[in-house]
Design goal:
Layout: H1 2-13, E1 28-33, E2 41-47, E3 50-57, H2 68-82, E4 85-91, H3 96-99, H4 101-104, H5 106-109, E5 113-120, H6 128-154, H7 159-172, H8 183-192, E6 200-202, E7 217-223, H9 228-231, H10 284-288, H11 295-309, H12 326-329, H13 344-356, E8 361-366, E9 372-375, H14 381-387, E10 391-394, E11 397-400, H15 401-406, E12 408-412, E13 437-440, H16 444-450, H17 458-467, E14 472-474, H18 487-490, E15 496-500, E16 506-511
Parallel strand pairs: 3-4, 4-5, 5-6, 9-12, 12-13, 13-14
Antiparallel strand pairs: 1-2, 1-16, 2-3, 7-8, 8-9, 10-11, 15-16
């Protein structure tokens, strides 16, 4: 308590605002950590006659962020200056930038007492549907790892394949740490932090039991969806802030036969999509190495040399003849030896998007005021669409997903502000409260370095700026760590009753 009060006093002296006379007690104080590409949010709510309630949502950083493990350790050390006890730890989904800290800072986390760990039903090993998803992820990661190795062997002379390779490596960065650790181990380390009980697996459409001393706080579970079809929807034109596909884009790539590459290595398996049976013809590498085992082999090698592999001898020409086109001399331009590996980019995106759609999404409601705070993790379009069908019976009232969005006053923006992680008609346009504020855990420079393109996406940023009247904060804002806020944040307004950022590691807000 004393350390929290000291931090607030320091922030006030530096220019941070505190609630004015007669202002209501904040529903919650949220310390958003600013580690780069990653999520970590410490929630604190005061309780009369009881210790403060603490919830931690995720703790990780993308493996490509320079100095990431050290930053995460500093963040966990900062959490220990605020509290030694976490009532509920929420692990939203299996991506390194959300869970790496539970492994890299395990010794520091061991100093925290965690009462409960919450995860989505998608992480439950006893759930049949979850096991099917897990099988897909395991196969996809294995295939992408092998494809990445093959593309590395191609070299960087082919710009197209180099771009595909970099994209695949970026997605693998969500599944492997800087030392090659699997994301599953990171998630499991988080699950072990609650030593007295197994994780609580959350179902969409449920309402969590009341927390002692916080009878007016309701916690709704919106995601991950149970609808297998919606889990696969990654974009939809009517729900995105730019043109995408004309219809929902589901994950359709089959792992059985899509890659003729086994997870074990470079051996090939029978591929039902191939034009010939596996016992017909010659392996390309053998044919190109001039195998001389028989008449057929010699004929094949000769044909390939003349029409496929090249180069051919330069034909003699007279002064009257035109120069011979290079393609006539060198037939290697016809070769597509490694082009099939380009399909790995599709699989990579599908793996990434489907995992994001398994995110735990929570809505916090103050029963007295009806105001709602949403933490959307990395939920993408399919998850957002599923919220429209959710209903909760609360007393004599029926609460719907659309109703919660309409009363939202604070939004932790999904997936670092990416293009397909905030729905339009079924999402942001439903957030009609004039008190809306938002926070985006993003770093534009890191996103470009990873190859994610435009993140945060300008279309979402523009709408958020208008809807929040400038009360949209970013983890990479220049004022982070200075307490010198832009005009829209200098005076308490809307849902923000106080804000401070004396440290480059975090922004802290009081939300009412």
């Amino acid at each position: 308590m004393a350390k929290r009060a000291t931090a607030k006093a320091t922030a006030t002296e530096a220019g941070a605002r505190t609630p004015g006379a007669g202002a209501s007690v904040p529903v919650m104080t949220v310390r958003h950590y600013c580690q780069g590409l990653g999520d970590c949010h410490l929630i604190r709510i005061k309780r009369d006659g009881l210790d403060d309630f603490f919830m931690l949502i995720d703790c990780g950083v993308h493996s490509s962020v320079s100095g990431g493990p050290g930053t995460i350790n500093a963040i966990v050390s900062d959490i220990l200056t605020v509290t030694k006890r976490i009532d509920i730890l929420v692990v939203t989904h299996e991506h390194v930038d959300h869970v790496s800290g539970f492994l890299s800072a395990a010794d520091t986390f061991a100093q925290l007492h965690v009462d409960e760990v919450w995860m989505g039903w998608t992480e439950n090993p006893a759930d049949q549907q979850a096991r099917q998803l897990d099988k897909f992820k395991g196969q996809a990661i294995a295939l992408l790892s092998q494809a990445s190795l093959r593309m590395s062997a191609v070299g960087s002379s082919d710009d197209y394949m180099a771009n595909v390779r970099d994209g695949v490596r970026s997605v693998l960065g969500f599944n492997f740490g800087v030392k090659g650790e699997r994301v599953r181990k990171m998630r499991d380390e988080a699950g072990k932090l609650a030593q007295t009980q197994p994780p609580v697996y959350l179902e969409p459409g449920t309402l969590r039991p009341a927390i002692p001393g916080l009878d007016d706080l309701r916690i709704y579970v919106l995601g991950p969806p149970r609808d297998a079809a919606l889990l696969k929807v990654t974009d939809r034109q009517s729900e995105m802030y730019s043109l995408a596909s004309a219809v929902a884009a589901p994950i359709a790539l089959s792992l059985e036969g899509s890659f003729a590459l086994t997870a074990a290595g470079d051996q090939f398996v029978d591929d039902p999509a191939a034009p010939f049976d596996c016992n017909v013809g010659l392996p390309l590498d053998g044919a190109l190495s001039a195998v001389d085992d028989g008449e057929f082999e010699r004929a094949a090698v000769s044909f390939l040399a003349q029409h496929y592999s090249g180069p051919l001898p330069t034909p003699a020409r007279t002064k009257r003849q035109k120069p011979v086109h290079p393609h006539v001399i060198d037939q290697s331009w016809r070769r597509i030896d490694h082009d099939w590996l380009a399909m790995s980019s599709t699989l990579a995106m599908q793996l990434d998007d489907q995992t994001n759609n398994t995110s735990v999404v929570l809505a916090f409601e103050d029963a007295k005021t009806g105001r709602v705070i949403i933490f959307a993790a990395d939920a993408q379009i399919g998850s957002w669409l599923s919220w429209q069908d959710l209903k909760w019976n609360v007393g004599t009232d029926i609460v719907t997903g659309a109703d919660l969005l309409a009363r939202t006053v604070y939004y932790k923006v999904g997936h670092h502000g990416s293009q397909n992680a905030t729905a339009q008609a079924k999402g942001l346009e439903l957030m009609i409260s004039p008190d809306l504020s938002a926070f985006i855990p993003t770093n534009q420079k890191d996103a470009k370095k990873v190859g994610w393109g435009e993140m945060p996406f300008h279309g979402i940023l523009d709408v958020l700026e208008k809807k929040t009247n400038g009360r949209t904060m970013r983890a990479d804002d220049e004022w982070v760590g200075t307490n010198r806020f832009p005009p829209a944040l200098q005076t308490p307004s809307g849902s923000l009753k106080a804000i401070s950022s004396p440290s480059r590691y975090w922004i802290e807000v009081d939300i009412a």
